[in-house]
Hints:
The chain has 1 helix and 16 strands. The protein is mainly beta and about 200 residues long.
Amino acid sequence: CEPGAERCGGSGVEACDADRLWTAQQTCGDACVTITCGEAPACLEGSGCVDACAGDGECASGDCEPFYGACRPTDKLALCETCTADSQCGLFGDMCIPIYAENAPVESACSIACATSNDCPRSFFCDGGQCRPEDGLVAYHTCAAIRDLLTGKSCIPGLDQCGIAGVNDGTCNLGTCSIGCFDDGDCPEGTHCSGSTLKFCKVD
Length: 204
């Protein structure tokens, strides 16, 4: 082989060394090849064997993380789920981060790694290498408020039943917890912006 050349081998990406021998670039199980080989399953440093993907529909967990091009393992927490440690969240590099409202941390939730906001799902932005909810319009978009929206939590207008108690985050709209929006881009995936004067995200 030509020194410096790379190929897909049985244990992942292999490189041709100075002695013209193929050597593994990354240690993976026999059933794994690395993501750069373009085949599933993949081996991601720190996460063991994971499935490579191009879209959520290819993953058993329903979550394909664009930054890695790999599926979130089914035994790891998803974006915006409550957490206490980084090891509970998604893939290696995904972190358990503080979510802020009113300039103070109000909860801890799993994030996903990113290089730019293009690596983040709709209504999230990349901040410090992690995706976090955008600030919000009518009220803060905390992960708790997003979870209540996506689960269709029922509420009574005027009572503090959406999002985090005592925090101006979720909004009760027509008996269901929601968050404010200008257009669909302000709403998490799986929801859309609905209304005329006052608009709120609604589950598709």
